[in-house]
Amino acid sequence: MWSGQGESVAVVYAVNVDTTDLAQVVQVSAGQEEANWEVDVDVYGDTYHSEDADAVGGELEYMATAGDTTRYVFLTLPGDVHVAAAATGGDLEQQDLEQIALEAGQRMQGN
Length: 111
Description:
- This protein is of the alpha+beta class.
- It is built from 2 helices and 6 strands.
- The chain has a domain at 1-20 and 57-111.
């Protein structure tokens, strides 16, 4: 994870765990009470293909919160390998996140 001046980028690798739930994970800090409320945030999502993802047998999904404040690209590879690239703030676009996820996935596959 990288973070600085209102923007951050994170890459999550997982085997046998679907990283698309990453957008729903909230962790309560130690010693804090859990809030008993829900927040509705509009999220745009789309499943798509690219030549690079097809070349490694991968499937892509893009998700973004309203206003594109947080963006995710999820890559699923053969062997139940999952990679998520997430950005908050900053100028990273869907294509940039896709490239980050693909490079991470290729490293996990040893390519």
